[in-house]
Write a structure and sequence with these properties.
single chain; 353 residues; alpha/beta; Rossmann fold; 2 domains; six-stranded parallel beta sheet; five-stranded parallel beta sheet; 14 helices; globular
């Protein structure tokens, strides 16, 4: 019958989606399927357009790979059942949680929640990027619903599950050589006040105010949010808007510590990227973050500035030898546990088995 052909369906492009498509194209013919899904008033028309596009492009060898569940996964899941085609849906975070307190999580919205439930019921395999996205007990912030993960919302979904972690390539050269002492970095797209709190930037700022002897960098924050929270007034804080790969590479190499203080994550790429540069991680006890960090860094049990400050005091008490050892361990954790080659092999096996 020949090699499978892959239709890769996604909502919004990203560096990591491009990486997936790139390695899939090494082995298969790949067609991309994406529309302006953010324009809610267009969704009914987009669904019709997607229906006919996939109807006329699907053949006996087609495999659907869908990044995140949502409106865009409904038609591939429907065709999966109708035509007995393989449909692999990657669930990665927002499609597995509901945080109405922070206006976050697709499962807080009735319509898209129904689309997700249908998609996960009809597809052939669900591919969580972390075990916690299936079901786990949330304890980091008391205001948030304790049970998260798609199975806690849809216990009736019994579609086969295969966990496929995100994968990373190590940076060139020696990323451990030129780090500035007591330097902390966090990377996230912060363009609203909701994202500011959701990504733990408020706590990161608190630490910057307390620890004037340290330097702090936020990458990805908008000018509007900088102005709203008067961040220019903090002398030891550097705010950088969204940057390209080369500049981000330079920033990771400069910093000793990476902070991931989010209220919600799936499998945070920026945390893993930072660790691949030898940045020692400090993360919230949320979803896969403790699993990723393992014993290479520090995990904050609850969303509390005093508790976080205690953790910072432990960090700042590390000797140079301990910092060097943890930095090497962080890099090794990503290299050994989450290489891109392992993700590639997992997808090749899933598509061809």
């Amino acid at each position: 019958m020949g090699k499978p052909t892959v239709t890769y369906v996604y909502h919004t492009s990203s560096t990591f989606i491009r990486k997936d498509i790139e390695f899939l194209r090494e082995r298969y013919q790949v067609t991309e399927d994406t529309y302006a899904w953010d324009r809610k008033y267009l969704v009914p028309f987009i669904l019709i357009a997607q229906f006919f596009k996939l109807l006329f492009t699907t053949n006996r060898r087609t495999v659907y790979v869908v990044m995140f569940a949502g409106y865009w996964s409904v038609i591939p899941a429907f065709f999966s059942k109708l035509f007995r085609r393989k449909c692999l849906i990657i669930v990665g975070g927002t499609d597995c949680v509901s945080f109405p307190e922070f206006n976050y999580g697709s499962l807080r919205k009735p319509l898209i929640s129904k689309a997700i439930r249908y998609s996960l019921t009809q597809c052939s395999t669900v591919l969580p990027v972390a075990e916690e996205l299936i079901e786990y007990e949330y304890t980091y912030f008391e205001a948030i619903r304790k049970k998260q993960g798609y199975k806690s919302f849809f216990p009736e979904v019994n579609t086969p599950i295969r966990i496929v972690y995100n994968g990373y390539e190590l940076p060139r050269g020696n990323p451990l050589a030129n780090k500035k002492s007591n330097s902390f970095i966090t990377v996230a797209r912060i363009h609203t006040s909701v994202h500011y709190e959701l990504k733990g930037i408020d706590l990161f700022i608190e630490m910057a105010k307390i620890h004037s002897e340290c330097s702090f960098t936020i990458v990805g924050i908008s000018i509007e949010i900088m102005d709203q929270f008067q961040l220019d007034a903090i002398q030891n804080l550097r705010c950088v808007p969204f940057v390209g790969k080369d500049e981000l590479d330079t920033l990771y190499r400069e910093h000793q510590f990476y902070c991931c203080l989010s209220l919600s994550e799936g499998f945070p790429n920026a945390l893993c990227e930072g660790m691949s540069y030898g940045c020692i991680p400090i993360g919230s006890k949320v979803s896969s973050i403790p699993f990723i960090i393992d014993d290479t860094g520090f995990v904050v049990e609850r969303r509390n500035a005093d508790l976080l400050n205690l953790q910072f005091q432990q960090v700042l008490a590390l000797t140079e030898e301990q910092i060097a050892a943890k930095s090497k361990a962080s890099l090794a954790r990503i290299a050994d546990s989450f290489p891109l080659s392992r993700r590639k092999s997992a997808f090749y096996n899933l598509i061809e088995e």
